[in-house]
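Homework help board

Subject: predicted structure for assignment chain

Our instructor gave us this sequence and asked us to write out the predicted structure in token form, then describe one feature. I got the tokens but I'm not sure how to describe them. Can anyone check?
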Amino acid sequence: MEQPKKKIGRPALPVEERKRRKAVYAKKVYHKYSDRRKERVMCECGMTVSRAGLVDHKRRSHHKNNMAFLEKLKKECVVIQKK
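My token output:
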């Protein structure tokens, strides 16, 4: 009789073990970058937001209104030079 072929590679881990390893890894990586995500940065519209919320902020109407206002100011402002 012919013996069944052996599978090449590592044996599959049980589901519980995979979940446990994934949780440990995710916790380690999340805390590694959480300080950077909380850091406050200045958006080009003039508002201060966290890095994590910057993309979401740019989708909001508040950002669009501020940008429109800044463009309007750039067009209407006249620079006065000293003599």
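Reply (TA_rk): Your tokens look well-formed. For the description, you could write something like this. The radius of gyration is 27 Å. That's the kind of observation they're looking for.
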